Amino acid sequence: MQNNKVAVVILNWNGRSFLEKFLPIVIKYSSGAHIIVADNQSSDDSVEFLKSRFPQVSIIINPSNEGFSKGYNLALKQVNTQYYVLLNSDVEVTENWLQPIIELLDTHPKIAACQPKILDYNHTSQFEYAGAAGGFIDKYGYPFCRGRIFNVLEEDKGQYDTAKEVFWATGACMFVRAEAFWKVGGFDDDYFAHMEEIDVCWRMKNIGYQIYVEPQSKVYHVGGGTLNKLSPRKTFLNFRNNLITLTKNAAPRFLFFKILYRMILDGVAAFKFLFEGNGTHFIAVIKAHFSFYAHLPSTLKKRDEMRLMDEFKDATAGVYTKNIVYAHFVKGLKHYSEL
After folding, report:
1. Chain segment 203-255, per-residue pLDDT in tens
2. Which among 150, 176, 97, 74 is positioned nearest to 325, based on CA atoms?
3. CB-count burial class (<10 Å; 0-12, 13-18, 19+) for 9
């Protein structure tokens, strides 16, 4: 692969319509970057379309559809650049979207990953679910964002326009330092999709790196392009991967009780699905727990391997020390600024 400083890498699976709509804008506003599409064995005509319409774009063809995690790992091993920009195919970038974050990474070598401000493509004044203005977690591993707590999305009024250290950067548009990414082993192949960016950010933080958001860079995300919000598969992956992420990365203090507490709340969520008539999602949560048990030996092995690294120290910056579930659903706090 071409040796550039910055590679914009778009993972594609049957996303020809998104490529047709958004790739020309990526090309227009990404001067100097190497643009690559990594295809996860699409069954549509994505690859043929790219070859005929965008000969300036490099194509990597993965041997099978291994999802987001392994799909990116396979592709990025073939990309020789200082920085990767992992970009969903359903993202509209804007002019000057690369420069503010690349300058931040150049200036601060301990920043391993950074995201721009993520706005909703269909409601452009509103933050988008997957990342908003930077990701955080609470002490039980529940993720939320500046601009998004659970399903409550804030209007963007410039209230979060400052660069800030966060806990995780969204995989929808993640700038990541290649050296740091591979130092922790890249994404966890077992995740397939969902939560993998939180996991890799947590691992990088645990060896001394920082994660940032730089809102001077702005993009618009459609969201739900591969698995929509109503997908039982997405429910399964989110519940399972969240438990795996917490088990792999959290500090040992009270970890057993945190996981037990999470499991109880997962059970509450599962029965809520059932009472609402969403039986397939109820089953998805149950399957997620059994899959978590099946992965537990390998999860604990990965946890031990990380904790043996010389640089390892449990990260706390960006962890909300209270319970975001209680804060949101009981106390009624809707906005990040209220926490």
Report:
1. 999 999 999 999 999 999 998 544 455 789 999 999 999 999 999 999 998 99
2. 150
3. buried
The pLDDT, as a whole number, for residue 224 is: 59
Q: Is residue 78 part of a domain?
A: yes
Does some domain include residue 325? no
Whether 206 and 110 have beta carbons less than 8 Å apart is answered as no
Measured CA to CA, the distance from residue 236 to residue 314 in angstroms comes to 28
Q: Give the torsion sign (CA, 301, 304, 310, 316).
A: positive
The domain tally of the chain equals 2
Q: Give me the pLDDT at residue 1, please.
A: 45
Residues 212, 69: one domain? yes
The secondary structure of 269-300, three-state, reads HHHHHHHCCCHHHHHHHHHHHHHHHHHHHHHH
Residue type, 200: V
Q: Do residues 126 and 265 both lie within one domain?
A: no
* Cα 127 from Cα 120, distance rounded (Å): 6
- Asked if residue 279 belongs to a domain, the reply is yes
Same domain, 162 and 253: no
Contacts of residue 111, defined as CB under 8 A and 6 or more positions apart, other chains included, come to 104, 105, 177, 209, 210, 211, 212
Mean pLDDT computed over 312-321? 91
Q: How many CA atoms lie within 13 A of 161 on its CB side?
A: 6
Angle in degrees, 0-180, between the axes of helices 232-249 and 196-205, rounded to the nearest 10 = 10
The range of the structural domain enclosing residue 165 comes to: 6-221
Q: Determine which helix (DSSP H) or strand (DSSP E) holds 241, and give its type and residue range.
A: helix 232-249
* DSSP state letter for 338: G
Between the alpha carbon of residue 7 and those of residues 126, 178, 216, 223, 266, the distances in Å are 28, 10, 20, 22, 39
The beta strand positions in 178-258, using DSSP E, are 210-221
Read off the amino acid at residue 155. Answer: E
Q: What is the pLDDT of residue 104?
A: 98
- 166: domain CATH number is 3.90.550.10
3-state secondary structure of 168: strand
